[in-house]
Amino acid sequence: MAMRTTAVAAVAALTLLAAGEGAHSATAAPRAAAGECRVLAAGASTTAEQAVAAACEQIGVWYTWGGGHGPQPGPTYGQVDPSDPDSAHDPERLGFDCSGLVRYAYARAAGGDPLPGNAYHQFHAPQVRQRFTAAEGTAPLLPGDLLAWGSGGSIHHIAIYLGAGRMVEARESGTRITVADVRLGGDYAGAVRIAPPTQAPGTFSTWGTDVWTHQEPSTGSPRVHKFPGPTTVRVDCQKHAEPVTAEGYTNDAWSYLPEYRAWITNIYIKGPAWLDGVRTCP
After folding, report:
1. How many CB atoms are located within 10 Å of the residue 149 CB?
2. Percent of the chain whose pLDDT exceeds 90
3. CA distances for 51 relative to 12, 189, 222, angstroms
4. Which of 18, 116, 215, 264 lies 20 to 30 Å from 92 when distance is taken between CA atoms?
C-alpha cells in the first residue's frame, strides 16, 4: 500500500497538537509538518541524531526488497519477493529495504558496520542498550531508537524514530522511503535504543561469508542463523568442544552468542583462537 503525503499550500503560525496513538510526554516537540524528516525531540545521543540525519537524506529513494545488504552499507538493487507481487520491479530499483536503511544510517553515524543483518538481528543486536515494550508507546522513546513490528518472536519490519510520534521508514515494495506516524497498533513489538560505539563492551566481529551458527558447539547440531558477511556480535562465553578445521585453521573453541541463542566456532571470530577477556562457559 503506497504511502503519500498531502502538500500544504500555506502554513500560518499554528500549534499542532499530537493526537496519534499511544502516550506522549508533556514535553514532546510539536508534530512535524507532513513529510518533514529531522530530529524532533531532544535527549538523543550524537550517534542517534547522526543516524536520523543519514536516514533522512534517503527520503524519496525506492524501497526495494533486499536492498542495502551488499558487502558494504549503502543502496543496492533489490530482489523479487515471491510473496509480494509489488516487488516485481525491485531488481530494477536502487534502494533499501527496512533493515538495509537502518544498517546504512547507523554505519554512517557510528562508522564501520554495526547493524548488519535483517530486522530480527537488529532488534536483538549486541549494541542494544535499552528495550521498550509495546505497552509503553512512544513516551520513553528518543530520536534514533529503532521501532519494530512482529509477533511470536519474529520481527518483520523496523524503522527509525524521529520524535513527536513520527518515524522514517522503508516500508514496502512500490513505495519510497518516507516519514510516517508511528503505528502502535497491530503487531507493534516495541523499540530498542542503540548504544554509542564506546558503550558496547564484549563485542567482536565475525569474518567470512555465509557462516552458520549452530544450536550446540558442534557442526553436526542444527543450524540456527547464517551471517552473509562480517557481522558484529556479542560473545557471552566460550568453551572447548568439537574441533573444527576451516579456512586453513583448526580450533576447538566455540563462542556462545546470546542474541542468537547459538554457537559459532571461534575460527570465524576475528581475534585469537581463545578470545581475550571472555569467560569460560559453565
Report:
1. 20
2. 70
3. 31, 21, 36
4. 116
- Comparing CA positions, the residue from 117, 99, 81 lying closest to residue 160 is 99
State which amino acid sits at residue 227: F
Q: Any idea which residue has 521501532 for its cell?
A: 147
**Packing angle between helix 98-110 and helix 46-56, nearest 10 degrees?**
130
For the chain, what's the residue count? 282
Cα angle 146, 79, 229; round to 5: 60
Give kind and range of the element (H or E) at residue 56. helix 46-56
**CB within 8 Å of 77: residues ≥ 6 apart:** 64, 67, 90, 91, 92, 93, 94
Give the residue from 237, 254, 256 showing the smallest Cα distance to 246. 254
Which residue, among 197, 104, 184, has the nearest Cα to 147 in the 3D structure?
184
CA–CA distances in Å: residue 23 to residues 37, 59, 159, 164: 21, 27, 19, 11
Across the chain, mean pLDDT equals 86
Taking only the tens place, the pLDDT of each residue in 249-261 is 999 999 999 888 9
Q: What is the largest CA-CA distance in the chain?
A: 70
What are 192's three cell numbers? 530498542
Q: What is the DSSP letter of 266?
A: G
Per-residue pLDDT tens over the stretch 156-179: 999 999 999 999 999 999 999 999
Query: Which helix (H) or strand (E) is 227 found in, with range?
Result: strand 223-227
- Cα 160 from chain centroid (whole Å): 9
For residues 48, 51, 53, 57, the Cα torsion angle rounded to the nearest 10 degrees is: -170
What are the pLDDT digits (tens) for 102-121?
999 999 998 889 999 999 99
